[in-house]
Amino acid sequence: MTHERHEYTPAAPLLEGSLAKRQQRLAAGDMVSTEEAAQITGTSRFTVNTWIDKGRAIGLSQSKRGYRMPRWQFEPAMWDALPKVSQALGTVEGWAILAFLETPHGGLDGRTPRQAIEQGQALRVLEIAGHE
């Protein structure tokens, strides 16, 4: 029996909701521009955009040009896990990855995958992401 790989399609409010919910998330205090992300990581905006295109970093598209990015993704534990999460989910789409990471999951005792990764449980999160 073979299993087909499907892209992750979360049922998270982030994606189900209105444009207003997305705009609210884009304006949250933990968000940075690609220019700020380049400063944080000591690289160029071009490199940051390449990371977004490859699923190495979460970039959330806006109605205007450019991306907004959650600053917390550049913390060491998250930075190490993020490309593996993207690969396990089968998507590089920023909103889908963010929705997975910020939605509480029963397999993590109600914690979000982001919280579990920050608490040293990246392997468990990757198992869950691979089954989504």
Characterise this structure.
The protein has one domain. It is 52% helix and 7% strand. The protein has 8 helices and 3 strands. The chain has a 3-stranded antiparallel β-sheet with strand order 1-3-2. The longest helix has 14 residues. The N terminus is likely disordered.
Defining key terms:
3 strands, 8 helices, 132 residues, three-stranded antiparallel beta sheet, disordered N terminus, 7% strand
**In one word, what is the shape?**
globular
**Average pLDDT rating:** 87
Largest sheet data: 3 strands, antiparallel
How many beta-strand runs? 3
Residues in helix, %: 40-55%
Task: Summarize the helices and strands and which ones pair or pack.
Blueprint: H1 13-16, H2 19-26, E1 31-33, H3 34-41, H4 45-54, E2 60-61, E3 67-70, H5 76-89, H6 94-102, H7 113-118, H8 122-131
Antiparallel strand pairs: 1-3, 2-3
Short summary:
With 132 residues, the protein is mainly α. The chain contains eight helices and three strands; from the N terminus they run ααβααββαααα.
